[in-house]
Every structure is written in C-alpha cells, then in structure tokens.
Amino acid sequence: MHCPYCRHTDSRVIDSRTADDGSSIRRRRQCPECNRRFTTTETTSLSVLKRSGASEPFSRSKVLVGVRKACQGRPVTEDQLALLAQRVEETIRAQGSAEVDAHEVGMAVLDPLRELDEVAYLRFASVYQAFDSLEDFEAAITLLRAERDATGVEPEPAAAGD
C-alpha cells in the first residue's frame, strides 16, 4: 500500500476493524518513511457476468431498481427494499465466487421477494422468467398457493386501495 503523502511503497497496519456489517475491513496504517497515518478500507470484489459477456461490479442499487419496479403501487417500504437488496447480496457473496452470472442474481431476488410481496414476486418472475402465456402465470400462482398451504402461513392483507 503506497503512502498517500510521500508515496513510499510500504506501510504498517496499526489497527484493523470490521466495517459495514462485516462486509469490509477498515485498517489504520502508518508510513515508516514519513510516520504519517492514514486509513484504508478493504472489500471483496464481486462481479456480475452479463448475458452479453461483459462483466461489471455487483450493484445493490441495480437490484433495488428492478425490485422497485415490481413493487410499484404495492405496500412495500424503502427499508424493506433495502433489506431485500442486502439479503440478495449476502446470498450471492455466500456462494464464494468472485464472479456470478446475472441470472444467479435474479434467482437470488425471487425468494426474498416472494416473502415480501406475492404480487411483486409474480411481476418480477413474469419478466425475469419470461412468462409468455396465461399458463405460465397460472403455474406460478398454483405453486405459490401450494407453498402457502404447506407452510400454513397466510399473506398479510394488502392495504386499502390496492
């Protein structure tokens, strides 16, 4: 690590702490040449491989944009969406790979979105899984009902006006 003050090619770590809920490490460093201190933050890189073959850094905000569209007009808060995006990132990072397919990111969205709002889930799944007939929707709804019946958990009623 180069010193930002004198550009010396080495530094000594004085203190390390986790930051951002454990997703990064904050290190306090000291330059042996000029003795000045500075802070660095280390994070693991996570890349998404797109269908076009291009690779780009994972972005929670891109997950939020897609999910927000599916949740438009639904009783879902921004905090719930932020938690969903965090869960998606944690799921992807837990796979242990530095690069994941965009398809895997979409698949990681489906389960938490289904738990959050079934209508938003159907909207997202219809685009993501390329539903092209009423039968596709019927199959997805049948699966949702079967899972609900198996768990015995009823969804919360939608707010008035939905």
Q: What would you say about this model in short?
A:
By secondary structure, this protein is an alpha+beta fold. It has helices at 60-70, 78-94, 102-116, 118-128, 134-151; strands at 12-19, 24-30, 37-43, 47-49, 55-57, 99-101. It contains 5 helices and 6 strands.
Write the layout of secondary structure elements.
Elements: E1 12-19, E2 24-30, E3 37-43, E4 47-49, E5 55-57, H1 60-70, H2 78-94, E6 99-101, H3 102-116, H4 118-128, H5 134-151
Parallel strand pairs: 4-6
Antiparallel strand pairs: 1-2, 2-3, 4-5
Helix pairs in contact: 1-2, 1-4, 2-3, 3-4
How would you portray this structure in words?
- This protein has helices at 60-70, 78-94, 102-116, 118-128, 134-151; strands spanning 12-19, 24-30, 37-43, 47-49, 55-57, 99-101.
- β4 (47-49) and β5 form a beta hairpin.
- α1 packs across α2 (78-94) and α3 runs antiparallel to α4.
- The protein has a three-stranded antiparallel β-sheet, with no helix packed on it. It has a three-stranded mixed β-sheet with strand order 5-4-6.
- With 162 residues, it is α+β, with helices and mostly antiparallel strands.
- Helices cover 44% and strands 19% of the residues.
Listing every helix as H and every strand as E from the N terminus to the C terminus, the arrangement reads EEEEEHHEHHH
Please give the oligomerization state of what you see: single chain
**Unreliable stretches:** none
Which sheet architecture does the biggest sheet show? 3 strands, antiparallel
By DSSP, the count of extended strands is 6
Q: What is the gyration radius calculated from CA atoms?
A: 22 Å
